[in-house]
Amino acid sequence: SSSSSSSSSSSAALVALLQRAEREIFSRFATVLAVSRALLRDLETAHENGAALGPVFVRFGPYLKSYGTYVVHYPALSAALAACQEHPILGAFLRACELQPACGGTNLGRFLSLPVHRLPQYVLLLKEVKKQKEKKDARAQKKKERTETTQRQRAWGGLGVGDGVGVGVGGGGD
Question: What is the pTM of this model?
Answer without folding.
Answer: 0.63
